[in-house]
Predict the structure.
Amino acid sequence: MLAGEESGDQLGGALMRTLRDAAPEGIAYTGVGGARMAAAGLNSFYPMEDLTAIGITSVMAKLPTILRRLKETVAAVLADPPDVLVLIDAPDFTHRVAARVRAANPRIPIVKYVSPTVWVWREGRARAMRPYVDALLAVLPFEPEVHRRLGGPPTFYVGHPLLERLAELRPNPEEAARRRGAPPRVLVLPGSRRREIVRLGADFGAALGQVAGARTLDLVLPTLPHLQGLVEETVASWPVRPRVIVGEAEKYAAFRTARAALAASGTVTLELALAGIPHVAAYRVGWLEAQIGRRVLKGTTVILPNLVLGQNVVPEFLQEYCTVPALVSALGDVIVEGPARRRQEEAFARLDEIFGITGLSPSARAAEVVLRLARSGRTAALPAPE
């Protein structure tokens, strides 16, 4: 098992627990992961944080460490070959591991959990994966067709991990009444990385100050423990200060009672959509990343709910379009009853059907593919890719 960032650690932990329950013959893990994978039985080769780098400048700064860990990881896999190698997210690192392992020991089955975003940029990665990925586990329903069209590896839609948390995201009748009540509860979600908070913090604060000037709001900002200090320092200068909460239980309790949200682009926008919360998304990267992105990104949106729905229902403001007036106008529109709010609510109501929320959980579907390859090798009979 090899994960390179927080989201991969969450996926890996859930998959490891499901695999253990589904394998009566017993199962043992080696690899790289974080706290959740450690709790599920993994002794990590080294700290997962050694692989975490976002943005070109961050990657360049950590490149010597990443290259060293790449060599060490491949050597560890080859020294004690697993029945199956599962690579989770972090494509720039894990794909290099996969290619080197396949070249040195072609008998090891390789599963990739989470598709790289070939539908947004660098679509050639789909075909490049085919020689060294035996099964790609997709979390978004449109990805199998994308890989079929681009010549990617056999791709199996297993479902997004958030589908296993719908009960935590969606309100009971009492919580639904609070959503409709006053003052409106608005979630503030400036990102889960330090750079995101720094780049978006000032504009989020100024926009919320103006929106709150027109109406009373109950602002709630969920964050992670290691970011709490930065977040509290950031909001200290805002004209209105949100209540900062830490921990998943408090976060999801706030989701179940929130009326609207202002969020950094990312997985959290899909959480909001599945929770049925109309929202506004924004994002800003460094100058160099922005110049590269303008030349290579495809499509008309980068927001996950918009991509899954096939229509741009969530307003998004990126780079120079992420301005205080734009955020004020769009957020005001989704707080009050009106066409903008209804459009999002009606679109989000279709997500259950689109995601196919029936039968096995995503981790159980993923475990089925992994176990078939682990037990029978690369020649295992897998179900036809969707």
In short: The chain has a mean pLDDT of 90. The radius of gyration is 21 Å. DSSP finds 18 helices and eleven strands in the chain. The first strand starts at residue 2 and ends at 3.
